[in-house]
Write a structure and sequence with these properties.
The chain has 913 residues and is of the alpha/beta class. The strands form 6 sheets. An 8-stranded mixed beta sheet has the order 13-23-22-15-16-17-18-14. The structure holds phosphoenolpyruvate and magnesium ion (MG).
Length: 913
């Protein structure tokens, strides 16, 4: 016999049909009401209509299951019995609240309806039953307002108008001053408002009211703001909302009643102290609406000591039971306490870390559980300057948020707008804090970018030059902010109908992408001050200590290594301090822009023959060698992967007339010749052009110079007892032949130096995997290649065929249509690009069992991608220095998740047996 579907679950009175683990079916609120009932926390009884009803509704042409109404009626009868009152009964009415509640907390859906069941008859019964006529009529008028507003969509302000009319007529200032007679008038006025806007009279039958409210909750699942919320927060795969119907507890029955909301610990600081507020003689919406100012929860201790004691006991009980900080709602009805809700409380990064570390110390959770509770964003909040919460809230409330771009580089910053890298440098030298605002940035801008507090660009994606460079430094950056209309000639930017001139103050939030008018206050991170700046006072800071402890736990668990992408000795040293276990990518071209180096590379590009190129390259050699020495010293004992020149050569040339004239003068040639070279190097698709290994196939002398610099540097520092482990990496190969040709050049050059210097330096030669074809022929490439590093920026670009610099123009449409749930340049496309990574690893290791595999694309520092790479069997991930801690955490979480999944599988198989 087919089991009859069960759509309604009861709770309250010390027992329940459901439990906390049934969130998918009962929604978070319903599951926790059931759980609280089961563990003996006082909860007004009620029932939950499951999320399956909502699911059914949308799958069956907006019809509910046929058996549902009967089941609801049965549960109403049971509830009536428990409460010793009846829905719609004139003498002894039962009133209920109706609330939505999906598996995850989701603002945007229908709000609560309280006092459902009141009508012209029951209001008298309620008055008699409670002995409080005023309260009954007050509840009635609130109900008409709420029902009209929430269930039928009648704007709250129409009720406000009607209320003001009555208050004015009787010269009342506060709602609480209205007498019963006056409240009756309010009810009459509210009914008129309802009729006018709904087109029919207020429903008087209690069961009919309930039906409407249930339908409204289910209907609210797909209203635009709920759909938008799910999209923004990437909440996919939910069945729908549950509906909770619960007996009313009245907080508005006098001075021994009240209602409040609280957190079991402070959600901002994490401090283990009861935190919340309450209002005497009030119902739920009064606390939220901000009409009256609530009292801090500590005052409840003074006003109702017994209740406070009971509530504090429940706080401890809930924390012990759920083993996490809870966010609760409660109501006190004539000296009796009821809990209306409990759920895991939202918290700041600081609070998340403090609570997790404290709970380990309190023996509530294990170190592994603590690690699982920390999100990448939580850690980031510890590492970067953040906005002062109040100041930011004020800016938002004042409407100063101008626009939003991609949160490309973390942190928060304020400063004055400048539009050129040179101005950024000059203003910063003069002691000003600046934000560099550009359409995009190029390697030429790096000094100005460094000098700026933050970088803001109107184009470019998460792997644009600005984004990559800023993240490398841990600098705040918002990229691809399409709403900015930047005019370099007038030095102004138009946005949100405003014109901001050079020098105007703005603030940039690199975690949210918000651009804010004016200066929002920021504060520094003691973690960075302690770790990177080695400040001994910062090391005493509790936040620093917690961070270090948490990272230690992560390192104990994780199995893969975390390296960094760094191009200078300073970045390398910072990254090492942040826990990097080597360098996974040194982009050597980034070294070409400092000081006079650019002139040597320009000379090389301009040269007509090999001799000319070699002369120019010889000038570059000592610079590169010195940088490599610094990097090797900083990474003493750890591997360093150095990539040979990658970008197309035109990136090193000036594209404007003045720049070309300057270059001609400096290199003793004519502007025409410079321009001719720039034109000759112009490519329609430079990302698919003469770049990567293709450069050294044409100009092996470039490869030779770079290898010479690497190996000479290695020999030099090795003499000083520095342990060097260079890994020379050939970029952008697509065929075995490309690799073999260049590997021969590398080895010939390197071995000759080592032999001549009688050094004992060992090195490896490997390649980047960033062209799809390379992953397909990985078995052939691995015959000579000793390691692979997946360059997932280019691999994503070339697999999807989306330009990494222009994806911003269509990506929002792709996200909103769920073609992708995340920017594939930020979080690896697991079903496509990720599969090529897996394939490359598998095929490569078929040929070379111990092939070292890593990833050095931007995905190497993104938690979901890191977890994927752990599963793909990589030996390490490599990311920007300031993302190293997040990658360490994600790598540990991947191991814990894997263990959890294994345990579940083991349990299932044991059950089957
Ligand atoms: C990559 O393509 O993933 C990579 C790391 O190289 P780049 O970003 O320098 O092209
Ligand atoms: Mg690349």
């Amino acid at each position: 016999m087919v089991k009859k579907a069960k759509y309604v679950y009861a709770f309250g009175g010390g027992k329940a049909d459901g439990k906390a683990s049934m969130k998918a079916l009962l929604g978070g609120k319903g599951a926790n009401l059931a759980e609280m009932s089961n563990i003996g926390v006082p909860v007004p009884p009620g029932f939950t209509i499951t999320t399956e009803v909502c699911d059914y509704f949308y799958k069956h042409g907006k019809k509910k299951p046929a058996s549902l109404d009967k089941e609801i009626d049965e549960h109403i009868r049971k509830l009536e019995k428990k409460m010793n009152a009846r829905l719609g009964d004139k003498g002894n009415p039962l009133l209920v609240s109706v609330r939505s509640g999906a598996a995850v907390s989701m603002p945007g859906m229908m709000d609560t309806v309280l006092n459902l069941g009141i009508n012209d008859d029951t209001v008298e019964g309620l008055a008699k039953k409670t002995g409080n006529e005023r309260m009954a009529w007050d509840s009635y008028r609130r109900f008409i307002n709420m029902f009209g507003d929430v269930v039928m969509g009648v704007d709250h302000e129409h009720y406000e108008e009607a209320l003001s009319k009555v208050k004015k007529a009787y010269k009342r200032k506060l709602d609480t001053e209205l007498t019963t007679k006056e409240l009756k008038e309010v009810v009459a006025e509210y009914k008129k408002v309802y009729k006018k806007h709904v087109g029919k009279g207020f429903p008087t039958h209690a069961r009919e009211q309930l039906g409407y409210a249930i339908d409204a909750v289910i209907g609210s699942w797909n209203i635009p703001r709920a759909v938008a919320y799910r999209q923004i927060n990437k909440l996919f795969g939910l069945k729908g909302t549950a509906v909770n119907v619960q007996a009313m507890a009245f907080g508005n029955m006098g001075d021994n009643s009240g209602t409040g909301v609280a957190f079991t610990r402070n959600p901002a600081s994490g401090e283990n102290k009861f935190f919340g507020e309450y209002l005497v003689n009030a119902q739920g919406e009064d606390v939220v609406a901000g009409i009256r100012t609530p009292e801090p929860i500590s005052d409840l201790k003074r006003d109702m000591p017994k209740i406070y004691k009971q509530l504090d006991g429940i706080r401890l009980k809930l924390e012990r039971h759920y083993r996490d900080m809870q966010d609760v709602e409660f109501t006190i009805q004539e000296g009796k306490l009821f809990m209306l809700q409990t759920r895991t409380g939202k918290r700041t990064g600081l609070a998340a870390i403090k609570i997790a570390v404290d709970m380990v110390k309190e023996g509530l959770i294990s170190e592994e559980e603590a690690l699982m509770r920390i999100e990448g964003d939580h850690l980031n909040q510890m590492l970067f300057p953040i906005f002062d919460l109040d100041d930011k809230a004020k800016a938002v409330a004042d409407g100063r948020v101008l626009t939003k771009g991609l949160p490309a580089g973390p942190g928060a910053a304020n400063g004055q707008i400048v539009f050129t890298a040179d101005d950024a440098e000059a203003w910063a030298k003069a002691g000003k804090k600046v934000i560099l605002v550009r359409k995009e940035t190029s390697p030429e801008d790096v000094s100005g970018m460094w000098a700026a507090q933050a970088i803001l660009t109107s184009t470019g994606g998460m792997t644009s030059h600005a984004a990559v460079v800023a993240r490398g430094w841990g600098k705040c950056c918002v990229a691809g902010c399409g709403a900015l209309e930047i005019d370099y000639t007038t030095k102004q930017v138009k946005v949100a109908g405003k014109v901001l001139k050079e020098g105007a103050a703005i603030s940039v939030d690199g975690s949210t992408g918000e651009v804010i008018e004016g200066a929002v206050k920021t504060s520094d991170s003691p973690v960075i001050d302690g770790i990177v700046n080695n400040n001994s006072r910062a090391k005493q800071h509790p936040i620093y200590k917690m961070f270090v402890e948490l990272m230690k736990w992560a390192d104990n668990v994780r199995e893969i290594k975390v390296r960094t992408n760094a191009d200078s000795p300073k970045d390398a040293a910072n990254a090492r301090a942040l826990g990097a276990q080597g360098i996974g990518l040194t982009r050597t071209e980034h070294m070409f822009f400092e000081g006079d180096r650019i002139w040597a590379i320009r000379e090389m590009i301009l040269a007509d023959d090999l001799a000319g190129r070699e002369t120019a390259l010889a000038k570059l050699l000592p610079y590169q060698q010195k940088d490599f020495e610094g990097i090797f010293e900083a990474m003493n004992g750890l591997p360093v992967t150095i990539r040979l020149l990658d970008p197309p050569l035109h990136e090193f040339l000036p594209h404007d007339e003045a720049g070309q004239a300057e270059m001609a003068k400096r290199l003793a040639t004519t502007s025409a010749k410079v321009k001719a070279k720039v034109d000759a190097l112009h490519e329609m698709n430079p990302m698919l052009g003469h770049r990567g290994c293709r450069l050294s196939i044409t100009y092996p002398e470039i490869c030779k110079m770079q290898v010479t610099a690497i190996i000479e540097a290695a020999c030099n520092v090795a003499k000083d007892k520095v342990k060097v482990l260079p890994e020379i990496m050939i970029p952008l190969i697509g065929t075995k032949q490309e690799f073999d040709i260049l590997e021969a050049v590398v080895r010939e050059t390197a071995d000759a130096i080592i032999k001549a210097r009688k050094a004992r330096v060992k090195y490896m030669v490997g390649t980047m995997m960033e062209i799809p074809r390379a992953t397909l022929v990985a078995d052939q490439v691995a015959e000579k290649a000793e390691f692979f590093s997946f360059g997932t920026n280019d691999l994503t670009q070339m697999t999807l065929g989306y330009s990494r610099d222009d994806v911003g123009s269509f990506l929002p449409d792709y996200i909103s249509k769920e073609i992708f749930r995340e920017d594939p340049f930020a979080s690896i496309d697991q079903g496509g690009v990720g599969q090529l990574v897996k394939l490359g690893v598998e095929r490569g290791r078929k040929t070379r069992k111990d092939l070292k595999c890593g990833v050095c694309g931007e995905h190497g520092g993104e938690p979901a991608s890191v977890k994927f790479f752990v599963g793909a069997g990589l030996n390490y991930v490599s990311c920007s220095p300031y993302r190293v801690p997040v990658a360490r955490l994600a790598a540990a979480q991947a191991v814990i998740e894997k263990k959890g999944a294994k345990k579940k599988v083991a349990k299932k198989t044991a059950k089957k047996k």
